[in-house]
Amino acid sequence: MLELRHRGSCPGPRETESLPHREGEAAGGDHETESTSDKETDIDDRYGDLDSRTDSDIPEIPPSSDRTPEILKKALSGLSSRWKNWWIRGILTLTMISLFFLIIYMGSFMLMLLVLGIQVKCFHEIITIGYRVYHSYDLPWFRTLSWYFLLCVNYFFYGETVADYFATFVQREEQLQFLIRYHRFISFALYLAGFCMFVLSLVKKHYRLQFYMFAWTHVTLLITVTQSHLVIQNLFEGMIWFLVPISSVICNDITAYLFGFFFGRTPLIKLSPKKTWEGFIGGFFSTVVFGFIAAYVLSKYQYFVCPVEYRSDVNSFVTECEPSELFQLQTYSLPPFLKAVLRQERVSLYPFQIHSIALSTFASLIGPFGGFFASGFKRAFKIKDFANTIPGHGGIMDRFDCQYLMATFVHVYITSFIRGPNPSKVLQQLLVLQPEQQLNIYKTLKTHLIEKGILQPALKV
Amino acid sequence: MESESEAKVDGETASDSESRAESAPLPVSADDTPEVLNRALSNLSSRWKNWWVRGILTLAMIAFFFIIIYLGPMVLMIIVMCVQIKCFHEIITIGYNVYHSYDLPWFRTLSWYFLLCVNYFFYGETVTDYFFTLVQREEPLRILSKYHRFISFTLYLIGFCMFVLSLVKKHYRLQFYMFGWTHVTLLIVVTQSHLVIHNLFEGMIWFIVPISCVICNDIMAYMFGFFFGRTPLIKLSPKKTWEGFIGGFFATVVFGLLLSYVMSGYRCFVCPVEYNNDTNSFTVDCEPSDLFRLQEYNIPGVIQSVIGWKTVRMYPFQIHSIALSTFASLIGPFGGFFASGFKRAFKIKDFANTIPGHGGIMDRFDCQYLMATFVNVYIASFIRGPNPSKLIQQFLTLRPDQQLHIFNTLRSHLIDKGMLTSTTEDK
């Protein structure tokens, strides 16, 4: 989510001093700054805050020092503060996009590591905010317990999903087989150990704080870890299912900002005063077009389109397959009104492009709600940014707040409309059943397949 | 208030000094003891009167439990559902009281809406497997089932967007707190209740034995603590003692063994609950699995000398019941400590005052919290594999080439195991 932050000529704590200055600047016809509305919120909160006694006294969390690298500062020292900020954001945006391309080039495994790294960093950022809000940095055990729970939940999810894909690898190793078979039990035991440690760590004066942090940790896990695992599952489905949604969200961010910048007039929602209807609608259309084109370009390459498989002989990830029907050009007859516009009878499209319209629509219409949610969260806890990892942009979480719902949507979309359950998982479960049950299933399947004509009754061997 | 005296196993005033130093505790709801009981017991001293009230209510609850078991799985499911809703309501009400947020715009509606969504999702995922034939017959149900995840997600999204749109300037923090509170409550309450129903479908014995073990452990630990209690167990609940803990453990294991012995004899407890298409009701009729057939076990030398028997006839399920009872006695109490800590943290005596002498529904079910998950994980890991009908259902949705591949792999697997020979294929 792009928000123009006028950092003024001096970074860091002096930001608050320059607020009145920026207010004057904003009145000049451009969009008002987020920080102005934050200040209003502060005052209102202090008077109308119905929170428990500790919270009304919490000062605004001091922003971390500006981390813009020195070289950028020197190169841009000549420009005015507004354009300087623009440049910093622009350069960082391009850097992030190139990093993204680089990692895509390096392959699925690197992408998985990247997703994992981002998840851990997001978790860290949100937990740190919790510590600051509750002044609970020194609670006994708590830091250890938070990271322990993160580990447990990750272990559980990786075991449930990734193990299916590594089935051949797992069958080879004896210990891994044991871990897979009793996976749920082991994960549960690990979680229980953490739970019991939490109960044993409850200290007389800090009960409420500890419960708050416990709940905070769990909600954070629910948000970050589940999303990241759905992202990885989408990735295994084919890198295109990972790239197109994420790019659509990024494109929507950027184009909504640009449309808002040039044509913005009507505010969209009180929560984010800088969002405008023009930006929203313009972003929607550009994202759909962008998604359409990106889907067309990527659908040609097996590298993006094929499900990621782990080949035990090569001991690496392979993306080689016969592209499914989704990724084979088909001709569609255009509906009459489009025929008149484009003056063509038919068009050759990949079916996936039609799906990409659904994905882009979601990215433009519902994705921003994730951004509003994060905005509201930042207002509620009186922070400017989740962290200050990326100069000009804030923390990792700031970049990924709109992606929040996208990963879940893509996963649900795939399971509902594209494919059924994972075949290797079905096979794995079949092999675990009792022999009599397997025989029963075998007979049922056989009847079904013969009925459907997939299996010829004559070919028995 | 009588309910504030030793009635509460966990509540005590001494360690509440920290709370008195801070803001006043939340107002306690009025005493709910029915007038009848009040009059009947008016002559006894307050301590014994409380004992009697608790005792009578305990027996009433246990009798109620038996009646419901008698009425069958459908009623049990409905009861579980109601308990879940009541627990959710209790915890959310505490949240409202803590944050004085009863009047937040939309929030009550949103909490109940989320409860509905999550329940819809879970019921759709699990229950449709069991009602497979019924679902396939009815066209609207089939569509709902096929796109179930998408529909659930859409419903949840609507709630999420409503939440974002309902954010009001002065109340951001409160609203986020209540949002977080609702989600954590859903995580605790709804997942547990669905696991309970899963266990129930596995066979009523998997529902009854764990719950009874937890109740027995509660009662036994209290008794042992009452008569022999000396060494405190944990600072969080000063009234728990090591003697009560250990005594309760052994008593529960023995109780579990006896109970499983009695129940394993009856088909209605032991068989998986199935939905019979023709009669349109639940049936529990089957050939009991190996777990529920008497087998001879050699007693290890150690116990042989004590008891003087060489072998004993037991149901294998009784061995599993030892694991279940052990969990109920050793880890179950942690659920109770968690709830104690929660009540201390938010300075409440009870979750609510629904049951006279006992507090709210949540007070009775706090130890059950972890038990349902454990039983479910235990069954999934050690007892049975995945559900065959669900597998067939999943198989039917795969692509033909995938189906063929799986079919061939299964075939070679069965031939390897000797379950199939090439000639049996010709039948």
From TrEMBL, chain A:
Function description: Catalyzes the conversion of phosphatidic acid (PA) to CDP-diacylglycerol (CDP-DAG), an essential intermediate in the synthesis of phosphatidylglycerol, cardiolipin and phosphatidylinositol.
Catalytic activity: 1-octadecanoyl-2-(9Z,12Z-octadecadienoyl)-sn-glycero-3-phosphate + CTP + H(+) = 1-octadecanoyl-2-(9Z,12Z-octadecadienoyl)-sn-glycero-3-cytidine-5'-diphosphate + diphosphate; 1,2-di-(9Z-octadecenoyl)-sn-glycero-3-phosphate + CTP + H(+) = 1,2-di-(9Z-octadecenoyl)-sn-glycero-3-cytidine-5'-diphosphate + diphosphate; a 1,2-diacyl-sn-glycero-3-phosphate + CTP + H(+) = a CDP-1,2-diacyl-sn-glycerol + diphosphate; 1-octadecanoyl-2-(9Z-octadecenoyl)-sn-glycero-3-phosphate + CTP + H(+) = 1-octadecanoyl-2-(9Z-octadecenoyl)-sn-glycero-3-cytidine-5'-diphosphate + diphosphate
GO molecular function: phosphatidate cytidylyltransferase activity
Keyword Cell division part of the UniProt annotation: no
GO annotation (BP), single: CDP-diacylglycerol biosynthetic process
TM region(s), chain numbering: 141-158, 178-200, 212-232, 238-264, 276-298, 352-374
InterPro entries: PC_trans, PC_Trfase_euk
Family assignment from sequence similarity: Belongs to the CDS family.
Protein name, UniProt field: Phosphatidate cytidylyltransferase
Enzyme Commission number: 2.7.7.41
Record localization: Membrane
Pfam families associated with the record: CTP_transf_1
Membrane as UniProt keyword: yes
Bilayer topology: Multi-pass membrane protein
Pathway: Lipid metabolism; Phospholipid metabolism; CDP-diacylglycerol biosynthesis; CDP-diacylglycerol from sn-glycerol 3-phosphate: step 3/3
Alphabetical keyword list: Lipid biosynthesis, Lipid metabolism, Membrane, Nucleotidyltransferase, Phospholipid biosynthesis, Phospholipid metabolism, Transferase, Transmembrane, Transmembrane helix
Compositionally biased tracts (Basic and acidic residues): 14-56
Organism: Pan troglodytes (Chimpanzee)
Superkingdom of origin: Eukaryota
Region ranges (Disordered): 1-67
Any Gene Ontology CC annotation: membrane
From TrEMBL, chain B:
InterPro entries for the chain: PC_trans, PC_Trfase_euk
Keyword Cell membrane: no
Transmembrane spans: 106-123, 150-168, 175-197, 203-229, 241-263, 319-339
GO molecular function: phosphatidate cytidylyltransferase activity
Region Disordered, annotated ranges: 1-31
Enzyme Commission identifier(s): 2.7.7.41
Protein's membrane topology: Multi-pass membrane protein
Top-level taxon of origin: Eukaryota
Known catalytic reactions: 1-hexadecanoyl-2-(5Z,8Z,11Z,14Z-eicosatetraenoyl)-sn-glycero-3-phosphate + CTP + H(+) = 1-hexadecanoyl-2-(5Z,8Z,11Z,14Z-eicosatetraenoyl)-sn-glycero-3-cytidine-5'-diphosphate + diphosphate; 1-octadecanoyl-2-(4Z,7Z,10Z,13Z,16Z,19Z-docosahexaenoyl)-sn-glycero-3-phosphate + CTP + H(+) = 1-octadecanoyl-2-(4Z,7Z,10Z,13Z,16Z,19Z-docosahexaenoyl)-sn-glycero-3-cytidine-5'-diphosphate + diphosphate; 1-octadecanoyl-2-(9Z,12Z-octadecadienoyl)-sn-glycero-3-phosphate + CTP + H(+) = 1-octadecanoyl-2-(9Z,12Z-octadecadienoyl)-sn-glycero-3-cytidine-5'-diphosphate + diphosphate; 1-octadecanoyl-2-(9Z-octadecenoyl)-sn-glycero-3-phosphate + CTP + H(+) = 1-octadecanoyl-2-(9Z-octadecenoyl)-sn-glycero-3-cytidine-5'-diphosphate + diphosphate
Subcellular location: Membrane
Keywords: Lipid biosynthesis, Lipid metabolism, Membrane, Nucleotidyltransferase, Phospholipid biosynthesis, Phospholipid metabolism, Transferase, Transmembrane, Transmembrane helix
Comp. bias regions, Basic and acidic residues: 1-21
Pathway named in the protein's UniProt entry: Lipid metabolism; Phospholipid metabolism; CDP-diacylglycerol biosynthesis; CDP-diacylglycerol from sn-glycerol 3-phosphate: step 3/3
GO biological process annotation, one example: CDP-diacylglycerol biosynthetic process
Cited Pfam families: CTP_transf_1
GO CC, alphabetical: membrane
Free-text function comment from the UniProt entry: Catalyzes the conversion of phosphatidic acid (PA) to CDP-diacylglycerol (CDP-DAG), an essential intermediate in the synthesis of phosphatidylglycerol, cardiolipin and phosphatidylinositol.
Entry-linked PANTHER family: PHOSPHATIDATE CYTIDYLYLTRANSFERASE (PTHR13773), PHOSPHATIDATE CYTIDYLYLTRANSFERASE 2 (PTHR13773:SF4)
Family: Belongs to the CDS family.
Entry protein name: Phosphatidate cytidylyltransferase
Source organism: Pan troglodytes
